[in-house]
Amino acid sequence: MAGTLILIVEDNEKNRKLIRDVLQVKGYQTLETETAEEGHTLAVEHHPALILMDIQLPGMDGITALKQLRANPITKTTPVIAITASAMTNNRQAMLAEGLTAIKASPSA
Known about the structure:
Mean pLDDT: 85
Radius of gyration: 13 Å
Strand order of the largest sheet: 2-1-3-4-5
Shape: globular
Oligomer: single chain
Strand content: 15-25%
Distance between the termini: 28 Å
Helix content: 25-40%
Low-confidence stretches: none
């Protein structure tokens, strides 16, 4: 999958850098942003193979962004993995029900 494009939507600069560096070392191309609004725009414009998205973002949260991605014919099937420190057991099922592909703890969790 070398060269595959992955979109990173994460407002924490250190987490974003860590994720980017790990992916790029493995040969993936990355796009990144700090906001869900810009993440949605980038996903529609660039058609990434995967979106890694924080849930707690400034402005629009990750769940709202996910709903918009799922409502858009261009991004409705794009896998989205939540990278979040807020994935408590009772929240996991609700987040997965919203259409997340998976939930992973963020590097700072």
